[in-house]
Amino acid sequence: MAYSASPIIDHFAGPIGQARLSLEDVFATRVSEFCHAGHSIFWEGDVASDTFRVSEGVLRLYRILPDGRRAITGFAFPGDVLGLAFHDRYFYTAEAVTTVRLRRFPHGRLQALAADCPHLHYEILQVIANELGAAQEQMVLLGQKSAEERVASFLLMNGLRVAKDRSAPIVFDLPMTRLDMADYLGLTIETVCRAVTKLRQAGLVSLEGRHKVFLHKPDELARFAGQDDSGCPGMIKVTHQASWPRHAMANLNDELEPAASRTCDHSH
């Protein structure tokens, strides 16, 4: 992904201009860049020269294990900032699930601004703290929850990005493939499909086409996923599943995305 030609933010200089400087202010000075699905904005091990803010689209964040397997550590959505916690190298690859629009800012320049702006420094710490919280939640997801609970948690997490109210049905588009879900949840595609089938048969979810998801009973789905009544993830409850029906799994497998590429388009 080539560097964008962006103006130097000299107007941020001085205590007055930096008093309430925010991440939104910083990235607003940069041009938009577009990255097509299947292409990467940076690769694991690359020099961490830039920080990125996603404006549109979804990115998958993953690492490649020594045996060649892919482990997805998270997804980036509009408003998310990538690269704040890095020092010398990127820890993971950031690859577009859909066409992505984003803005970049030099990592060193951002650190220098934050050193002189307490508000910006605090906001950066908040982003890093949220990343740590998400990492802890994934540890609970992978270490304590059953396959069905993991899938239910994943669907609910994505549904609540478009609807904060769990008391009513939620409809949303899920751009990730079943392979993405499997690599994020630490499952096989077959196990993900079986779990989705069980949730469908229980009347909790339904699917339309490749990507549209209906959560018919979000509150009940949350309880099944092991979340408490306040919606706090990570509160594990014992769920009895002996009565769940076992039928042949639906054919839900998606095709793999095209091979990743480094090339992205840029526009003003």
Compile the SSE list and pairings.
Elements: H1 15-18, H2 23-28, E1 33-35, E2 40-42, E3 50-56, E4 59-64, E5 70-76, E6 81-82, E7 93-96, E8 100-106, H3 107-116, H4 118-144, H5 147-159, E9 170-173, H6 178-185, H7 189-201, E10 205-208, E11 212-215, H8 218-224, E12 265-266
Antiparallel strand pairs: 1-8, 1-12, 2-7, 3-6, 3-8, 4-5, 4-7, 9-11, 10-11
Helix pairs in contact: 3-4, 5-7, 5-8, 6-7
What features would you highlight for this structure?
268 residues; 5-stranded antiparallel sheet; Arc Repressor Mutant, subunit A; 8 helices; alpha+beta; globular; 4-stranded antiparallel sheet; 2 domains; 12 strands; Jelly Rolls; disordered C terminus
What does this structure look like?
With 268 residues, the protein is α+β, with helices and mostly antiparallel strands. The chain folds into two domains: 10-138, Jelly Rolls (Sandwich); 145-224, Arc Repressor Mutant, subunit A, CATH 1.10.10. Helices cover 33% and strands 20% of the residues. It has eight helices and twelve strands. Strands 6-3-8-1-12 form a five-stranded antiparallel sheet. Strand 10 (205-208) and strand 11 form a beta hairpin. The longest helix is centred in the middle third of the chain and has 27 residues, at 118-144. The model is unreliable at 1-10 and 230-268 (pLDDT under 50). Keywords: DNA-binding, Nitrogen fixation, Transcription, Transcription regulation. Residues 145-219 form the HTH crp-type domain.
